[in-house]
Structure formats: structure tokens, C-alpha cells
Amino acid sequence: MQLVVFAVVLILSSFLSEGFLSGAEFIGNCLDIIEVHGNLSCALEGSGDLQNVDPMSCTLECSGNGRPKLPNGLCSNNDLNCTRVGIETLRNWGQYLENTLHKLLTRWCPCYPKK
Questions:
Q1: DSSP assignment of 2-44, as one string?
Q2: Is there a domain that residue 37 lies in?
Q3: Taking the CA of residue 28 as centre, how many other CA atoms within 13 Å lie in the half-sphere pointing to its CB?
Q4: Do 108 and 99 touch, CB atoms closer than 8 A?
Q5: How far apart are CA 110 and CA 43, in angstroms?
Q6: Spatial distance between the Cα atoms of 72 and 22, rounded to a whole number of angstroms
Q7: Are residues 84 and 29 in contact, defined by beta-carbon separation less than 8 angstroms?
Q8: Per the domain annotation, does 2 fall within a domain?
Q9: Residue 29: its pLDDT value, please?
Q10: pLDDT, averaged across the chain
Q11: Tens digit of each residue's pLDDT (9 = 90 or more) over 32-49
Q12: What's the start-to-end Cα distance of the chain, in Å?
């Protein structure tokens, strides 16, 4: 009996933590991250704001002429790979963009805090 209860607990916990669906897609999370960091990517290129995402070319469409690329491996078969790995890739990309912005502000804005 204890073995059955233990097995049920293990199976339920894997369902609840989504570990059972390791290849599951999280499109909403993916697009939310792209929207937040895509605006920063367009701005850092001097191309205005994010207007759209083009998964076929794996680029962002900005209000200016810029079309910054999304991180490598995020797009395949003309679609976004919004798996856990894809979301982690986007988070790392966002951190890189934020670090770039921080470095630029530290260098060019005397009143910007150095830390």
C-alpha cells in the first residue's frame, strides 16, 4: 500500500511541476519576454519600439528600419521554440541586453549610478 501511495505522489508531483511535459511549449511566456526585451533591443539599435516578431527570419520588426535578430536556436521551422530551453535562452538574452544598457548608461551618463 505504501508503495502505491509513493508512486502516486511521484506521478502527481511530476504533473504539477510540469516535469512530465519537458517538451511543453509556453507561448505566452515566450512572447511576454520577447515584448519586454524586444523593445530594449530595438531601442539599443536606435530603431524605435518593437512592432512585431518575425519567426520566419527570427528577427524583431522595429518601428524604425532595424530588424534585430532573436537569439540563436530560438526559431526553427518558421516558428518560435518556446520550450523551457527557449524561455531560458530569452531570459539570458534579456540579461545581456540589460547589461549592455547598464554599461552604456554608466559610460555616457555622468549622473547614472556606477553600481
A1: HHHHHHHHHHHHHHHTTGGGTT---HHHHHHHHHHHHHHHHHH
A2: yes
A3: 0
A4: no
A5: 20
A6: 20
A7: no
A8: no
A9: 85
A10: 81
A11: 999 999 999 999 999 999
A12: 58
The torsion angle over the Cα atoms of residues 9, 15, 19 and 23, rounded to 10 degrees, is: 150
Give the pLDDT confidence score for residue 13 in this predicted structure: 41
Supply the DSSP symbol for 69: B
In the chain, how many domains are there?
1
- Report if residue 5 sits inside a domain: no
* Farthest-apart Cα atoms in the chain, separation: 69
Q: Position 87: which residue type?
A: I
Residue 38: inside a domain, yes or no?
yes
In the predicted structure, residue 1 carries a pLDDT above the cut 90: no
How many CB atoms are located within 10 Å of the residue 113 CB? 8
Q: Tell me: pLDDT of 17 over 70.
A: no
* Structural domain boundaries, residue 85: 24-105
Residue type, 24: A
- With a CB cutoff of 8 Å and minimum separation 6, the contacts of 108 are none
